[in-house]
Fold each of these.
Amino acid sequence: MAVCIAVIAKENYPLYIRSIPAEHELKFHYTVHTSLDVVDEKVSAMGKALVDQRELYLGLLYPTEDYKVYGYVTNSKVKFVMVVDSSNTALRDNEIRSMFRKLHNSYTDVMCNPFYNPGDRIHSRAFDNMVTSMMVQGC
Amino acid sequence: MEQGPAAAVGTAGAVGAAANAGAPAAVGAAAAGALSSGASAGYCPVPLPLSDSEQQCYSELFARCCCSSASATSSSSSSSSSSSSSSSSGHPQPPPEVGRGAPLPGPAATAGANQVGELFRASQLPAETLHQITELCGAKRVGYFGLTQFYVALKLIAAAQSGLPVRVESIKCELPLPRFMALKNDSEIRYSNPVEFHGMKCQIPYVTMEKNSFKRVDDGEKQDTMSPTMSPISSPPSSPSNYQRVPLTYGYGKLRSGMDQIHAAPYEARQLALQQEGPTSGSHGPKPTRRQTSLIRSLSVEREPQESNSNYPDDPWRITEEQREYYINQFKSLQPDLSSFISGSLAKNFFTKSKLTIPELSYIWELSDVDCDGALTLPEFCAAFHLIVARKNGYPLPESLPQTLQPDYLQSAFLKPKRDCALFDSYSESMSVNQQPRDLNRIEKTSLKEKVDLTAPAQDVNIDDKPALKISSMDEAMPKDVSVDTASPKDLNTVKARPRSRSYSNTSLEEAMKRVEEPPTPPPRPQKSHSRASSLDLNKVFQPNAPAAKPGLLPPPPALPPRPFVSQVLHHNTSNDSVSQPKPPGQLPSYSDFRLLEQTDQVSEIELHPQLTRTPSQTEESGSPVKKDLPPSKPIRRKLRPENQIMENQEPPSSVSGPSTVPIVKPHAPVQKQSSKQKKAIQTAIRKNKEANAVLARLNSELQQQLKEVHQERIALENQLEQLRPVTVL
C-alpha cells in the first residue's frame, strides 16, 4: 500500500505530494526529493532510447528497510514517485505498474482541463480521489 | 440519522440514573438530568425512562435539530431548517460531523420547529398521530420543543411506530427506538410512499411556507410548524451519493435564503393559495406531508423520469427549457456546429467571463467534461454552464455530476425540445432550415452513440426513450417539420412527460432566480447564421481580429473585457426588440455579467441596421457615423452599439422591471442622465475608435500582404511571359 505519492514537474518541483500517515510527511518529502537523483540517473542512462511504456516505468529506485521507492517518468518529463511500505507483502511489479498507469491517466485528465495551467499545483478532486483510493487499498 | 437498532434495548432506568447514561457520558448525563428536571417540572409528570441507546439516539437527534435551528435562526430567517436541517444551514458541513460532533445543547435549547416537524414526518406516522404527539409532549403548551418535550415526543413516536396508542402511559414501557425514514444520512432512502406521498405539485411554495411556519412558531402553533416545513433534508433523493445530497440541501437552504429577498410575486401568490387550501390544522396534516413528498420527489432525481407528476423544477440540477435554449445559443455562438466540440481554450475564455474563480471553474470542468477529452460537446457544455449558473447563485458544487446533467441524459433531453413546437419554432427562427435536419441527424447519431454509451442503470429510461426518439427524430427529419406533434405520439410516456413537466418550469425556482437576476432583456438570439449569411467577409475578418485587438485597446473600466459572442447577444437583445421573444429566461447572473462585460465584437448584420438607425440619435458618436459608408466602418458601428447597450444596460439592471423588448434607446434619450452619459459615451467612443483603428490597421496589414502576394504572382507571370516570348534579341 502506497504511503506516499508525488508528482514532480519537469523542473523538479513538486506538483502534488500526498502521504498517508501524516506524521511522517516530512520524511517522505525528503525521500521523494532524494529519489529524484536516482530518477535522473536512470533517465539519462536510457539516453535517447525509444520511449515506451516499459521505459516510462523506472522500477524500484532504491529500497530502505522501511519502504521502497518506485519511479515513473512520462514523456513530458513529469515524474511520479511512489513510496511503498515494505512491510506490505511485496506488491508485485505489475501492480506497481498498474498504479502508475492509473496515475498517469488521472494526470492526463487533469491536463485536459483547460483551467489547469501546467506547472500549477494539482487541486483536482478527481485526482485526489484516485490517489486516495490508491493509497488506501494499494491496488 | 442512522436508524437506531430496531431491537428494543429498553433497560428501564430511572430518570435520575444519569449515571446510566454511559455512552455519551456528559452528554447523556446532561440529557438525562435535564430530562429529569424537565420531567419533574414540566408537562410530563412521569419520569421518563430512557435506555442508553435511546438517550444517545435522542440526544443526537436533538442536537441535530438544535444545530440546524440555531444556525437557521442565526442565518436568514427562512432557509435552514429544511436544507441542511441537521447540519448547519449556512455551512456545508458533512452531516455526520455535525450530528456527532456537536455538543448537546443545554437543556434550555430548543429544537427548531421545522427540523422537528420534518423529523417527525420522516417517522412516517400519520399526521393526526403527530399532532397528538406534539400535544402530548407538551411542545404545544410551552410553545417550543425543549429537551423534555423532544424526548417525550420521540418516545411517543416510538410507541406509535410500535403500534401502541399515543398516550403518556405508553412511554413508560420499553420501546424500540423511533425510526425515521428518509433522513439525510440514511444510506438507504426509502420512499416507501404511504398514501399521502403522492405527487403534489407544489414547488417552491415551501419556501414561503417555511417563512410562515416560522412566524407561526412564534405564535406557538405547533401544527403549522409541522406542516409547511419541507425540508429537503429528509427528502434528499438518492443522487449519486449521500454526500451529494448534502450539498444539494445546503444549496437549497442558501437558495431559499436568497429567495427571501428575491421572491417573485407569482410565487407568493401561489404559496398563499396553497396555504389557503389547507386552512385548518386538520387538513394541514396531509397537505404538508404531501408537499414535502412532492418536494422529495422533485429532488429525487432518479425517480424523476418515472414520476411524471413529480415536481421537476425544484431540482436545481435540472435544466429548464429556457436555460437549455440559452445554453444552446451560447454554444452556437462559440461553435456554430451543434454536433461538434468546443475546444478547451475557447471554453476557458468563455467561462472565465463568469467571474468564478479558476479553481472552481477547474472543478466544474472536471465535473462536466465526462470523457476528459479537453473539449465540450453540447450536453457537456450545457452541464458546465448550468453548474456555473448554479454556483453563481450560491449553490455549492456537487461532488459528482448530477444525473440530470449527465451528457447522455442531456442528450436525450435535448431531443424533446426539438419536438416541442414552441421551442422549436424559436429555434427555427434562428437556425436556418439547413441546420435543422443537421441537428436532427446529429440527434440520431448521438442517440445511437448514447445508446452504446449508456451503462448506468439509472439511464435505462433513456434507453427506452432512444428508439422512440430516434424514430421520431427520423420522422422529423423527413418533413423537416418543426412541430413535432406527429412525432410526439410515438414517444414513450416518460419522454412525453418530461416536456410536459418541463412546462412547470415556468414556476420553477430557477426561473425565479433568473427572473430576478436577469437584466430586463430577453435571452440572446444568436442570429448568427443570419449575420453570417449576410456579411461573411466582415465576420471572418473581424472575428479573429476583434478579440486580439480588444485586450490591448480596452482600458478596463469595470467589467468590460471584450467578448464577441456575448456582445452579439446583447446587441440582439437591445437592438432586435421586435425579434426578441417574450421568454424571459435564461437570464442568468452570468448572463448579466456578460452583458455588462460586453464590449464590442462581431455584431451581426441585423445589429448594423438598427445601429444605423440609432447612430443618428447618438450625438456623441458623430465621428463614427462618418465611417458608416465603408465596409470597414462596420465594426465601428458595431462598437457604437455596445456603447448604447452599455449605457442602456447599466440602467435597466438597476431597475428590475421586466420590460424586455422596449427599444432602449429612447428611454435613454431622456435628458435626465445625458451629461454623464455623454461622458461615458465619449469615452466609449474613444475606445471604440481605438479598436476600430486597430482593426483597420490589421485589415491594412492583411491587405498589404495580399498585395504582396499579388505582386509576386504578377512577377511570376511576367517571367513566364518573357520566357514564352520568342527571343527577339540575340
Amino acid sequence: MAALSSIHCRSYSYSPFLFSSSSSSINGQQFQRINFSSSGISKRFLPAKLFSQSRKNSYHGVVLMQDGAVAMPVNPVENEASFKKVKDGLLSSITSAEELKETAGFDVNKDESTVIITVVGASGDLAKKKIFPALFALYYEDCLPKHFTVFGYARSKMTDAELRNMVSKTLTCRIDKRENCGEKMDQFLKRCFYDSGQYDSEENFTQLDKKLKEHEGGRLSNRLFYLSIPPNIFIDAVRCASMSASSANGWTRVIVEKPFGRDSESSAALTKALKQYLEEDQIFRIDHYLGKELVENLSVLRFSNLIFEPLWSRQYIRNVQLIFSEDFGTEGRGGYFDHYGIIRDIMQNHLLQILALFAMETPVSLDAEDIRNEKVKVLRSMRPIRLEDVVIGQYKSHIKGGITYPAYTDDKTVPKDSLTPTFAAAALFIDNARWDGVPFLMKAGKALHSKRAEIRVQFRHVPGNLYNRNFGTDLDRATNELVIRVQPDEAIYLKINNKVPGLGMRLDCSNLNLHYAARYSKEIPDAYERLLLDAIEGERRLFIRSDELDAAWSLFTPVLKELEEKKIIPEYYPYGSRGPVGAHYLAARYNVKWGDLGAEQ
Amino acid sequence: MATRLTTPCSSSSTNFSPSSSFNNEAKLFTRFISMPRKYGLSTWVSHIHSKTHARKHFLLNSSNEHPLNAFSLQDGLAGNPLAKERIEPPGKERPSIPMSEAEKEESTLSITVVGASGDLANKKIFPALFALFYEDCLPENFTVFGFARTKLTDEELRNMISKTLTCRIDKRENCDDKMDQFLKRCFYQAGQYNSEESFLELDKKLKEKEAGKLSNRLFYLSIPPNIFVDVVRCASHRASSANGWTRVIVEKPFGRDSESSGELTRCLKQYLTEDQIFRIDHYLGKELVENLSVLRFSNLVFEPLWSRNYIRNVQLIFSEDFGTEGRGGYFDNYGIIRDIMQNHLLQILALFAMETPVSLEAEDIRNEKVKVLRSMKPLKLEDVIVGQYKGHGKGGKSYPAYTDDPTVPKDSLTPTFAAAALFINNARWDGIPFLMKAGKALHVKRAEIRVQFRHVPGNLYKRNFGTDLDKATNELVLRVQPDEAIYLKINNKVPGLGMRLDRSDLNLLYRARYPKEIPDAYERLLLDAIEGERRLFIRSDELDAAWALFTPLLRELEEKKIFPELYPYGSRGPVGAHYLAAKHNVRWGDLSGEIYE
C-alpha cells in the first residue's frame, strides 16, 4: 500500500524505510530533523532573520521537508552531507534560493535553540492527566527537540523530585512500543522541573525566568506556556509571564484552554486583555476536539476524494448531525460546569468548530490562515439561533440494577435549584449557497447511555427510486449515511443499500466501512499530543483565532442570554438514558431522524 | 438493521400469520387473475399453490409480466436465518396465498434437461435444481426429466446425479432425506436429439407425470449448438405443453458471429416465440452483478458519480487460473472474445452503463441495455489485444501451452486472452474507456468490475506531498468472484501526528456480513425461468447488437490472422494489455500490488 508521503515525526512505524532509522535515532538526530522542518515550523522558532519568510511558503515547506528529513535521517557526524541530501529533497518544493540559504543558516544555529514548556497549574488535573503524558509521548516518539525542558509551575510548594514523582504516576508508554519505556521515562523525568509561585506575582515569574535561563544556558530560547488554570487568573498569569518570563531572543507562545469567556462580552474582554500582552499569533486557543484523529481526517476525506466532492452540498445532503455524549455526569465536580452548562462547554466550541470544518468552502490552501478564514466565513453565515430551535435537558437520578445514579442537582458542588443544562440539542442553519436549508443538528449531553462523538451525514432520498415500487417499506427512509465516529473506536462508514445475497430481491442496509482499529493497529495519539506538537511547531491550523471565537460567541450568546433570562427549565431525563425526548421533536420539526438512536448498533 | 423486503421462495416463514394476511392475499390474488397474460394458455389460478404448502406460494410468481408482485410475494417466504435475524417482520409485506386444494393440484412443472449426461448438466443444472428444491423454491408438483442419447434407466440417472448433489454448508439437516425425495422426482428418457418420435415418447411420459393437470414445461438445452435447432423443433412440435407454458433455456454459444447468430435466432423463432426463449448468461445470475443495479439505483451517493464527469474509466476483468486442460475442442472454435467478452463482459457493461430504466421489469431493463449496445463505437482492431498462453515451468512443474492441448490444432491462433477498449458514444459516457480483459491460464481466478474515478480537481493535499495524488484516485470495486465484495478506495489520513495520506478501503466483504452461502448463478436463473422473470436473460435484439459490435473485429482478427501475443501459463497475461490501457490513459486496477491481490 503506497503511503502518500509527508511524514511527521510520528508516523515512522508505518514505513519500513523509516522504521530502521527511528530505531537508531537519538535525540540529536531528532532535533535536527525538527530543525530542518522548522523553516516552516514558525517564525518564532527561527532566528529573526527568518521572519521574512512568507507563511505560505513555510507551510508548504513543513510537510515536505519533514518528509525528506524523516526519510533520510540525519546523522550528526556526517552533518554536511546529510543536510545536502535533505536540501536536495526540498528543492522541488522550495521556490526561492534565498529560503534555502536561510534554512542553511538556521542549521548552524541548531545546537543553540531550546524549548521550554512551562505548565502553569502543574498540580491540576488536566496537567497530570493530559499534558504531562502528552509531553512524554512526544518525547518518547522523538518529537521534541533535543534541548527541551519541562517546567511545572503552581502555587503548591513542591520539589523537583516531588513533581517528578507526581508526574510519573500518570505516564504510560504506548502499547506498541513498550521497550525502553522505563528508561525513557527516567530520561523524561530528568528534564522536568518545578517552580512554585503565585499566578499573579511578577516576582515569582521573574524567578521562574531565572531558572529557565539557567536551563537555556545562553542558547536561543523558545518558550511555551500552557495555562492549565481557572479562567479568572488567565490574564494575571499571561501578564506576569509576558512581562517577566518572555523569551528574549526566541518565541514565546501561550496555550489557553477553554473557557474563553462565557459570552460575547466576556470573551471579547478576555481577548482584549490577552492582546495587551500577546500578539494574536502568540495565542494558541486549544480546542482539543480539533486534535482528534478523525476530525483531522474530515478535511482529508472531503478534499482528497473525488467521490465526496459532488455530494457535499444541499443538493445531496439532507442533514448533518454532530453528536457528543458522555456516559457520566459531573460526579462531584460540577462547580465549574454549573457556571457554564453544556452549550458553552461542548456546543459553542467543539461541535461548532467541527461544523465549521465540515461546512467550509474549499480553502485556498491548507495553511492555517486559509483554513481559519473559511471557517470564519461559515460561522458568520450562520442564521442566529432561535430559542425554539434549542432543547435543553438536565439529568435526574435514576435507579438501575440496584444502583442509584444521582441527579445533576445531587452534586454537592451544584446549587439545588440549578437550571444549567447538562443536555442540549440545537438546529442550526448556514445561510449560504452551499447549505441553505440544510439542518445541522447538534446534540451534546452528559450522563447519557453511551459515550460517543460522531458526525453523521444523512443524504437525500434517491429521486424516483426504482426499487421503491416493489417494496412495501419506504426506501426513502433508508438513505445513505456517512458516519465519522470520532470516539470511541474511530471509524468511517458509509451506509449503503445493497441486495441481500440470495435468490430473492431483498434490499438491506450495509456499511462500507473502515474501522481504524482493524486497519491501523497502532495506537492513535491523544489529541493533546498533536496540539502540543503543533504549538511547538507554530502550526496554527487547529487553534482558534480571535475572530473565529468572536463569531462563535455571537452565534450562541443571544440564545444563551435568552435561556437564562427566561429561566427556561430544562427537560429532565434519567441518568444513563438516551436524553430528553424533546430532542426528537426538534429533529422531527426539520424532518430529521437522529442517526445515533436508530435500531442500529 | 432495517431491511426491506422480498425474498422469494426459501424456507418456512416464521412470522407467517394466515389470518391476518388473508385480505392482502386475496387482493393480490385478484390482481393476478385480472392480469393480462402472454400465454393465453393457462389460467392464473392454476399456477397458484395451496396454503397447505405455504412455503411454495412462489409459484404465483410465474406471472411473466409482474416482477412487481413476484418480489413482494416472495418476501413472505423469506425464512432463512438471515432473514429472520435482519428483517423486521412487516406483516403486510408477507402475503401468502390461501387457496383450495383443487386449485393447487392442477398445475405441474416438468423440467427436461436435454443433454442430461453432459458435464454442465451434472455439475450445474441438477445441483441447482436440487438446491431450489431444498430451499422449497420448486412447485409442489415438479418433475425433472433427463433426456440424452445414452441409454440409461431412471435409476442410473439418479445414481449419476446423486454424486454431484450437495447441501449448502449451513443447511445440513435433512439433507439426505431431501436428496432422496428429489431423486425420486428425477426420470430419464433416452432418444435422438433430432427425432420427433423420441420427443413424442418423452411427451407421453411427461403427460403421465402430469396426470392431466395443467402442465408447464421447461426445456434446458445443455447440448452442442449444432443440434439446438433440431431439438427445439422436435420439442416444440412434439413435447410442447398443451395447456400451460413451454419455455426453452438456451446456453451460449449463440452463434459465432452476426450471421450465424441471426440464423440461429431465426430458426428458433420458427418454433418458439420470443418470450419462450430464455438465453442464459450465467454471469448475469451472479450475486454482485444483480447487486450492481441495486447499488446504482438505490444509493444517492452513487447517483451523481455515474457519468463521464466523475468516472475516468471502467474495467471489466475476468480471469481464470487454468487453461483448456484437454477440452479445448469447443473453445478453439470460439476463442476468448466470443466465449467471455461478447457475452458476459458486454452484458455487465451494458448493465453498468445503461440509463435508469423506467422500471425494473425485464423489458424496461433490456430496452436500456440495448440502447447502450447500440450506442457503442465500433471496435477497432488497434483497440484490441489478443494473447495465447504458452508452456511454462514453475516450481519444477511444467504447465502446458494452449497448443499442447491435444484437442487444439498445433497452429491455432485462437486467443485465450484478450483485452479491449470500448467506448459508448452517448451523453453519459462519451470518451470514457471501458476496458475489458479476459483470459485463461492467468495467475488468479477472478471476476470484477472496477470503476476508477477522476482526480480531485485542485487537490489541496497535492501541494504538500511528493507523490502524485492524481494517481491515487478513488476506485469502486465490485468483486464478483471469488469472495464477493464491494469496496471503495478512499484517501484518508494515517492516524498519527503527521499528515500522511493513505489509501484505505471502505469495504463490505460479503462473507463477513452474510455468512450464508451465496446461491449459484444457475439457481437464480433456473428459478427466474420457471417464474418467467426475463430480466436476466438476453433478448434477441440484445444479442444482435452484441454481435454487431464484435463481429467486424472478430472477422478482421481472423482474416488478417493476427498473431496472439504469447504469455506464460499462470502469468499476468501479455504486456500488450498494459500498452492498450496506457494508450487510453488507464492503469489496470487489478495489477497494482494492492492488498486484495
Amino acid sequence: PPAHSRSDWIGPPDKHSNLRPVIFYVPPEESALERRLREARQEAQASNQRFWARHNRAFRQEKEEFIYSRLKAKGLEMRDESGQKATLNAEEMADFYKDFLSKNFKKHLQYNRDWYKRNFRITFLMGQVALVRALRWLRRRKKNVEQ
Amino acid sequence: MSAARRCRPPRALAGLFVWRLRNTSVRQMPCQFVPLYHVANDRLITFQYFNFLKRMYVTQCNKDLSQRAKPKSDSAVSPFHELQQLDQEKKVVHKISPVSPVHQSWSETSSRNELREKKSAAETEDSVIPVGAESKEDRQWKEMKLRLDDLPGILARLSKIKLTALVVSTASAGFAMAPVPFELTRFLLASLGTGLASCAANSINQFFEVPFDSNMNRTKNRPLVRGQLSPLLAVCFAACCGIPGIALLTLGVNPLTGALGAFNIFLYTCCYTPLKRMSIANTWVGAVVGAVPPIMGWTAATGSLDAGALLLGGILYSWQFPHFNALSWGLREDYSRGGYCMMSVTHPGLCRRVALRHCLALIGLSTVAPVLDITTWTFPIISLPINLYISYLGFRFYRDADRSSSRKLFFCSLWHLPMLLLVMFTCKKSVLEKEDKGDLPGGSHERAMEIRLP
C-alpha cells in the first residue's frame, strides 16, 4: 500500500492459511487505546495465521500420505500411464476426512475458545475507540460552533 | 458500448494504471471522495481520475463476465512475505501488474450458480457472486475503507439476504395457513419483523465465523472475510436490525411472536454456531431454527401456539434434514479441514438414514394436516406425488451414497418445499367450514377465498 495512505490495507488470501493479511496504519497521534486495539488485531492475525498455515499444511500432507498408502494397498502407482495424478474417489477419502476431523477435535476446541475471546476483545476495543473518536469529533464541532 | 470495449484491454494495462497511481503522490487510492486539492502533482489530476474510472470499468465488467474456464493457480509468493518487505514498493507492485486469475475449485460453485432464487440454509448464497470478479479483485491489496455506495451490497451479503427472503416466505406461509381472517397490516409487520430478526442472526453468525469462512470455498467471499466491513460495524448492523425487529414483533404483532423471534436469534447465534464445531447435534438445532419462522407466522396471526403451528414447524423441521444432509455430502473435505462436526463427515451412515427418515416423516406429517383441521383431505392426496418423489430420492441417496444422488436430493428439496407450501395453502380449510364442521373438498378453495377478503 502507498506510504501516504491513512487506512488499513487488506491483501489477497495467503497461500497456506487462506486468511487475508492486513497491514495496519499507525497514525502519528495514536492514543494508548488505539495502540492496544492495533496490537490486539496484529496479535490475533499472527496467531490465526500460525494456526491455519500449520493446520492446512498438516491436512495436505496427511491427505497425500493417505492417498499414497491406499494406492499402494491397491497396487497402483501415484501416477498412471498418462502421467495424471491418481486420486481416490470420494468414498475412500471419506475415511480420511473422518479420521482427520476426530484427530484435530481437541485442537479445534482450543482454537475456538481462543478465537471467540480475541474476537470479542477486539470488537469491544473497536467500540471504545469509535466512541472516543465520536466524542472528540463532537467536542471539536461544539468548539467550532462556539467560535 | 465503450464500457464493454474497455473490458477487453489486457489486464496488464489495468495493472499498469495501478502502478502509475501508486507512483504519483496521491493521498488515497481510488476513492471518489478524494479531495483533489490533496494531490501534490497537479498535472496528474485528470489522468488520475481517468485511471480510476478505467479501473472501475474494468472491475465492473469483470463482475458481469462469467468466466467458465478453469483459471491457473497463482504462483505468487505468499502475501505474508510481503509484510516484511514493505519498503520495497516495487515488490508489491509486481505482485499486482501480472494479474492472473485466482485458482478456484469448481466442484461446488458450478452447481450453485443455478440456484439463483432458491436459498438453502446459508450454504449457497455466495455462489451468485460472479466468479469473474474474484480473479481480478482478489489478487489486489485493497484499502480497508468503507465506501457508502458499496454498503447496500455488502450489507445484503452480510445478512444473507436470500436466505432471509426464504425465511420470511416460510413465515408468511405460516401466517397464511392460520385459520383466522387475513389482516394485511399484521402480515406485513410480522414479515418485516421476521426479516429483520433473520438479518441480525445471519450477521452475528458471520461475525463469529470469520477465520473458518475464509478457509472454506463456499464462504470465502463474505464481507467480513474480505475486510469490506469491520467487525464492529457488523455487530452494530446486527443490533440495528435485531432490536427494532424484535420490538416490532413484540409491540406491533404480539409478545409471543416477539419472544419466538428473540429465542430463534439466540438459538441460531449462541447454540447452532458454536455447536457446529463441537458436535453433530448442531444439525438438529439448526432444523429447529428453520422450523421456528412458520410457527412465528402462525402465532402472529392467531396469537397462540396451536397444534397447527407445531405441525407446520414439524414439516419445516423434517424438510431441513434431506436438504442439509444432501448438501453437506459434497462438502466433506471442506468441513473436515475447517473443523466442522457434521454428520456427513463423522457418521455418514447416520447422515443418510436421517435424511431418508425425515423424507418419510414428511409424508406422515402431510397426512396429519387434515386431522388437525388445517387442510382438507385433498392435501395429503395432492402432495403425495411430490412427497413420494423426494422420499424416493432420499432412498436412492441412502442406498447409493454418492455425489449424484446427493445433488439430486438437494435440488429436489429446493423446489419441494415451496411446492408443498403452495399446495397446502390451496387446500387450506376455510374458517366458515370449521364452524359448520362440514367438509367440502371442491368448494373449500372458493370459500376460503371469500373469507380471506376483508
Amino acid sequence: MSRKIEITGISAEDLVYKKRRVKKNAYGAFDTAGKYMKQPMRTSVDEISGNYPMWEDKLETEFSPGKEAVTATSVMYVQVLCRSSAGEDHCVGTARVPVKDFTGEYALEGFLHCLSYRLWDESGCRNGIVNFSVRILPDKSHLKSGLRLFWLR
Amino acid sequence: MGNCLSGDVKGGKQAIGGVQQRPTSATTAIANNAALNDAVDFFFRSRGQYPLFSQIELTLSASNLLDCDITSKSDPMAVMYLRKKDGKLEEIGRTEVILNSLNPSWIEKITVSFQFEVVQTLVFHVYDVDTRYHNVPVKTLKLKDQDFLGEATCVLSEIMTRPNRTVTLSLTGNVRAGVNRNLGTLSVLAEETVASKTVAEINFRCVNLDNKDLFSKSDPFLRISRIVESTAAVPICRTEVVDNNLNPMWRPVCLTMQQFGTKDTPLVIECFDFNTSGNHELIGRTEKSVAELERLCLQKEAVNFVYPSLSHGRKKILKGQLIVDRFVEKVQYSFLDYISSGFELNFMVAVDFTASNGDPRTPNSLHYIDPSGRSNSYQQAIMEVGEVIQFYDSDKRFPAWGFGGRTSDGSVSHAFNLNGASYGDEVVGVEGIMTAYASALRNVALAGPTLFSHVVDRAAHTASQSLSQNSPKYYVLLIITDGVLTDMAGTVDALVRASDLPLSVLIVGVGNTDFRQMEILDADNGRRLESSTGRIATRDIVQFVPMKDIHSGQVSVVQALLEELPGQFLSYVRTRNINPVGAPAI
C-alpha cells in the first residue's frame, strides 16, 4: 500500500549555528524513522540568503503508511543543515513531525498541507522555524470523474 | 408639449448630460463617489499606502417604465443614493437623461467604493425629466420638480455575489395617487474598475555597499518610490531590514500595477542604513523603471548606486551595486473576482455562557435582554458581523454554538448547539441566531470555565469536511467572550491545528476584563502561535477586537475586524495558487 508523497521544502527562518547567524549554504532534509520512505530527501543548497534560506524544491517519493500500531507514533524528521566551506554538513536544527499531521486526519488525501515546525538544535534549544508543504497524491483509481475537487490543488 | 427631438435620440443624448467626454466623466466620477474623500486618499497615497477597497462602476438600465408624458414617452433619469445608518439618503450619482424611452439603457456609470465591512444599501430613484430642463446639466436638476417614476433598493454585496454581477429589481412607489401599478424594473450591472491586475514580484540583492555604522556594518533596506509630476517622489514600498550586512539579500517584493503605474514609469530605488533613531542614512540611489528592472534581471546585469554629492551638484558613482535576481510578472485576482465566481463565506457563531457574564435576569449582566429592545453586546456583535457576511453565504444556514454552559442533561458543554437540538447545529439567518440565543439563555445555566478549543475544533472539522465538496467555501468563526481563557495551551493547540484550513477566527471581547491573552492569540506582533507539539501556525487566522463602548461614533469597532477578512481570504487562496472558478490559470 504505497503512495506517492510530494514534499516541497519552502524555507526556513532564524537559523543560528554556534551562536552566529547562518550565513549561507543551508539545505533541508526529510527523513522518517523506520523504512517508510525510500531514501532521505534533500532540497538544493541555498547559497545566497543567509539565515532565511528559500528552496521551493519539489521532492517526490514513495510512502507506505505502514501497518498496525506503528502508524500512531510514526514520525518524520525534518532537518536543516548547513554546508561549511570545508564541505562538512552541520545539522542546524531538527523538527519532529508526526506523520498523522498530513495523512488525512484533518483533511483529505490530496490536500496540500502547508506546515511549519519549530527546529530544535542538538542541545535542545529553539533554533528557528522550517516551512514546508506536503501532499499525498491521491491514488489514480480514486479519481473517477475528471472533476478535481476544489480545494485540493 | 410635443418633444420635437423625438426622432433624434442621439442628439438628445448629447445635449443633455449624455455621453460625456473622457475628462468630464472622470471628474463626475470622483464627484459621484461619496465614500471616497480626496484629501484622505491623498494623505494615504503620499505615505505609500493604497486603499484596499475596490471601486465599482454601476451601469443601469430599466424596462417598462411608466409613461408620464402625454404626446411622447417619458424622459427618464436615474439617481443613486446610499442609505446611511440613520436612514438618511446620501446621493452618490446620477445618470444622464435619455429622451423618449420607456426602456432606457443609461450610458453614464455611477462609481461607488466597495467596502467589505459594512452593509452598503443602495437606493435608486427614477425620474421623468420635464422638457423645460432638457438642456440643463444633470447635476443641477432639482429632483422635486421632476416626475417620480419609481424606487428600488438593493445591497451592493448582493450584486457582487451573482455570477453575472447583475440584479434586476422591481420599481415600487407611490406614483399617481396610490394606485399600485406595474412600474417596471431596473437592472443594475456592477463592474470592478481595476486598471490592471498585474503584479510584479522582484528579488533584490546588493553587493559592496558602503559601511555607514561605526562598530558594525550597515543595516540596509530599500525604499522604492514613484516619481510624480517630475519632482516629487511618492514611496510605494519598503523591504525589510537586513542586519549587519554589506551584501544583503531581501525577501521578494510585490509591486502592483496600481502602485507603479506603468512599466515605463521611472521609479527611484534608494538604499538606506537603518538607524534606531529613525534617522536613516542614505547609502545610495538609482532610478529605474519596472521594464528596466526586468531587463536587468534577464541580462544578469547590475546597476551602480549613485550618491548625490552636495558640493559640486554632481553625483558620485559608488561601488555598491543593485542586482535583480528574479523578476516575475503575475496576475492577481481580487477578492471580488473570487466572490463573483462562486466562492462563499460561511458564518459560524460561538457564544460565551460562562458564569462571569452575570445572571441574565439582572440588568447588569452582559447577557441581559433588555425588554425595551436595546441590544446587549452579544446581540450587537452577532448582528454586525452576521449582517455583512450573510450576503456571501448562499443558503444562509449558520452553525451556532455556546460554550461554558450547563445544558439540560446536567453536564457542562464547551460546544453545545445554540438551537437546543441534539441533531443539527445550524440555524437559518441572523434572526435564527438571535432566536436561538434568546432561547438558550432560558434553557442553559451559566457555568464555566472559558475554553475555546472545543468550538475551534468543531469549526475546523466543518471546514475540513467541506474540502470534499466541490463548492469552494471559506469559513468565518465568530467567538464572543467576556473573560479570561482558562486553557491557553489547549486553545493555541486547536488554533494551530486549524491554521492550515480555510478558516478565520474573529474574537470579540465584551465587558471590562483584561484581554491581554487575546492579543497573544491575535499574533499581530509577528510571533506565530506555537503548539505544544512543536508545530507552528501556518498563518495567522485569529483577529481580536475588544468591544468597549457600543455607542461611540459611526465607525464600529467590529468593522475593524471585518476589514481584515478579505486579506485573510486572499492570503489563503494565493499561497495555494487557487484562482477564481473558471478563471484561466496564470
